[in-house]
Amino acid sequence: ANTIYGAIRGLETFSQLCVFNYDTKNVEVRYAPWYIQDEPRFAFRGLMLDTSRHYLPVDVIKQVIDSMSFSKLNVLHWHIIDEQSFPLEIPSYPNLWKGSYSKSERYTVEDARYIVSYAKKRGIHVMAEIDVPGHAESWGNGYPKLWPSLSCTEPLDVSSNFTFEVITGILSDMRKIFPFGLFHLGGDEVYTGCWNLTPHVKQWLDERNMTTKDAYKYFVLKAQEIAIDLNWIPVNWEETFNSFGGSLNPRTVVHNWLGPGVCPKVVAKGLRCIMSNQGVWYLDHLDVPWEQVYTAEPLAGIDDTAQQKLVLGGEVCMWGETADTSDVQQTIWPRAAAAAERMWSQLEAISAQDLETTVLARLHYFRCLLNHRGIAAAPVTNFYARRPPIGPGSCFVQ
Amino acid sequence: MAPALRLLLAFLAIGSCTAADHVDLWPMPKTVSHGTQRLYVSNNATMSMAGSKYSDGKAILKDAFQRMLDLMKLNHNADGANPSSSLLTGVNIVVLSTQDELGFEVDESYNLTVPTIGEPLHAQIEAQTVFGALHALQTFSQLCHFEFTSRLIGLNSAPWMISDAPRFPYRGLLIDTSRHYLPLATIKGVIDAMTYSKLNVLHWHIVDEQSFPIEIPSYPKLWNGSYSYSERYTMPDAIDIVRYAEKRGVNVLAEIDVPGHARSWGVGYPELWPSDSCREPLDVSNNFTFKVIDGILSDFSKVFKFKFVHLGGDEVNTSCWTETPHIKEWLNNNHMNVSDAYRYFVLRAQKIAISHGYEVINWEETFNNFGDKLDRKTVVHNWYFLNHEKGSVGNCRIIHACTKNQ
Hints:
The complex is a heterodimer of chains A (398) and B (406).
Chain A: H1 4-17, E1 18-21, E2 26-29, E3 44-50, H2 58-70, E4 75-79, H3 109-120, E5 125-129, H4 161-175, E6 182-184, H5 193-197, H6 199-207, H7 212-229, E7 233-237, H8 238-244, E8 253-256, H9 263-268, E9 272-275, H10 278-281, H11 290-295, H12 305-308, E10 311-318, H13 328-332, H14 335-344, H15 347-350, H16 355-372
Parallel strand pairs in A: 3-4, 3-10, 4-5, 6-7, 7-8, 8-9, 9-10
Antiparallel strand pairs in A: 1-2
Chain B: H1 3-14, E1 17-18, E2 31-48, H2 60-73, E3 87-95, E4 110-114, E5 122-127, H3 130-143, E6 144-147, E7 152-164, E8 172-176, H4 184-196, E9 201-205, H5 235-246, E10 251-255, H6 287-301, E11 308-310, H7 319-323, H8 325-333, H9 338-355, E12 359-363, H10 364-370, E13 379-381, E14 386-387, E15 396-397, E16 402-404
Helix pairs in contact in B: 2-3, 4-5, 6-9
């Protein structure tokens, strides 16, 4: 391998060639000799965890990282904070984690570092997200000044310098923890009502002849500057592109989620794209069976090869509103594996396979392997995700 | 600390409360009293056994103590600076009996004291056996929590005086690895979780009609009835499970359910089926059936050291016995109807188990049908649904209890 990370992938493949012989009680490799050459189709193969809607203990995050390595996913997108809770310690602004659900549903700085190093050992990057200016209600628990007002608590107060001081503090603290080159700044679902309704913010807008839409753009770009100054490439959810794509910093990576057909528009404008089309790759959408996950194509609608290169890859998103420790792994697996193959395997390697025979058999085998490795991957053939098996049966057929 | 504050704290510490209030312990110990002081557990907490008759040769306590420390930290770095006072340096464990063999009705009682005075300050566990001490360590771990602000392991509401013993000696959980194969890691996870709630019998319903996953050296084709080549347990796997459980104070009760719920046996040995088209219960007329049962129990006796074995005996649908000619003939020759044959089967299986040193547990139908004929030491396992309200939909109460036969 060229790098140790290639070698790590090689070891994983090797481990999948090995089977336990129940008669001789030895571990064997069958159908030798093997010659395998491998490399990923996309460099960014992500899984997003949401630890704001539900706190996930460090042990659970570690287990998710382990399971990612089994299917060669390589970016853990850690959506740490959102409106419901702020679980991470921020030394520059120590009151922020008062927004955690409870005193014990928290991550220390050391926890975060530990997760990063645990992932790195498995060849997995950690991309942290600080979603601004929407999805940030929890910030105000520690610093109510961040809210437009006590009765109108989102988005973050665009008119206040303090808001950007806090963002700078958070990002500076995070720069010491998260070495990955990309940093996610969110920017989705920004409901600007409170900016218009709150007098001092309205005044600030009027003084600058800004609409709330202008202010949204102003906020996002200003946050991007802070990240760029810290030597990060900013990633933003697609609304930023849809609203003011031409103004985004040219380094921006646009994260598609709202639907299909977005990355083609993004790369046509020369920006890079990550695909997470919610119709197929949102894992909290339980009604997407594995076949639909598998056949989703990040390069759909992009024929120009130069533009194709701007699609960094994709990401399956495990939003946490309805998933917690008790069921997060069975919600993620085995469907994330379907996406993982889509992101890793060359089309030529899989094009001859038939979905309902050869691919299904291999996915069944992989699901049972996950189970054997202690990952609670759900039955493959249920229509709805994370449903229990409907009756007795072998792992390989359910 | 200001003198006035120190005095106030001392005053508060003296006043104990017996409490259902701040006691976040599960299950609730027999008696609990506590105070109001906060202590910390040292980063380098150690375990000692001063005064103990038991020497922990098998490292049962040493390993449990390490597991407990890991649990208390829950992956956080507990590296805050140790405070100068209110610091517990460790746990001293006094075990009065040298016995370290786990068995039914072993003494599981313990006393756990967490004082606020003492130099050096340490928690004290006293137990009759090492298994009581294991429970005490679990309880201690539940008193502790990781404190995010100080990065220390804190222990609130000291001093604690806890005296505990289980109400019942048999506190079981059944897992079914026939309807779905459960990997070893999963079974071990269940065992760990059992210790957190002080359950102490893992009832392993290994085999049933759908699959036969375990290796039986005496009859090696039996596990051809597994769902697939890899959904199997070797004998070393079973030994591993028993050992893993034993170290944690959990007994393993193996079940071999006969004569019903045994269709999977015939995949390896079709002669065990009444006929190819009528596959359960096991063929009562065939001596080979009982040879196989004997082989299974003989192999079990080398691995499953719990004093009981479960022989099932539930939900026996005998129609294949009357419909299969050679069995019908056997019944006639022996002047038996199917009820007699059901009873004959269960009792003969019981005798085989007893010959291998076991005492027997059977599901309640055996008692309901011929209770007075069961071996006198049989333990009857109740399971059947009871509808308490006539005409109400879905109002069931399930009583799972192990009651001794009269």
